[in-house]
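In the laboratory, one determines a bound structure by crystallizing the protein with its ligand and collecting diffraction data. In a computational setting the workflow is compressed into a single prediction: the sequence and the ligand go in, and a structural description comes out. We illustrate the idea with fe (ii) ion.
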Amino acid sequence: MTTAALAWSDLEDYFSLTEKLQKKYAKDIQISVGFEVDYLPGFEREIKAFLDEYGARTQQNILSVHFMQGKENGLWCLDYTTADFVDGFSSLLQKPQQLYQMYLKLIYQSVTADLGQYRPQRIGHMSLIKKYQDYFKLPEFFDEANLNLIKKILDIIAAQKRELDFNTAGMYKPYCNDFYPGKQITELAVQRGIPFVFGSDAHGIDEVGRGYHLKNILAKP
Ligand SMILES: [Fe+2]
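The predicted complex, in structure-token form:
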């Protein structure tokens, strides 16, 4: 996909620019360099190789799942367009809790995968599968079976002392209308003492910091 991902050929430019900015503004602001790393099932070795090579030059990374097996067992992007979503996952739209479960199983795989010493510390948008929930009239809440899987995932994240991205981007998507990872996962994560880190998931400068004051709902009294 060329619309969202960084091209390999741009990697060095990304590092040289961000490292220059880190030095230039060192006194004013702490700038972290990093990636939202895609977890692609079956490509663990490649992901680890990437992290082994570049991880030492990063300070913060997020591990996210954007692709899932869909039609003809191909990997389909689940947050690109509604048309693409229906093309890849139409057989599951009538069984939305199964659709959710497929996604959550990938999250489980992603947090348990051996991605080496530079594995991302933070897990991104665990509820991304609900990005088009209002378009497809998907259930607002995870059912009992999915909640059990979510608890299992969160127990692992807590034991690993990793953290969750608290991400407001979904609130501004016309068919999501919720923050990531949503109320259910947030409450279960808070119960387990998993730290949240506020993120904008910005794809443009004007999106940075949108919904920032929502971070206060996670603040301890
Ligand atoms: Fe993402």
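Residues 33-219 form a domain with the TIM Barrel fold (CATH 3.20.20.140). Keep in mind that any predicted model is a hypothesis to be tested, not a measurement.
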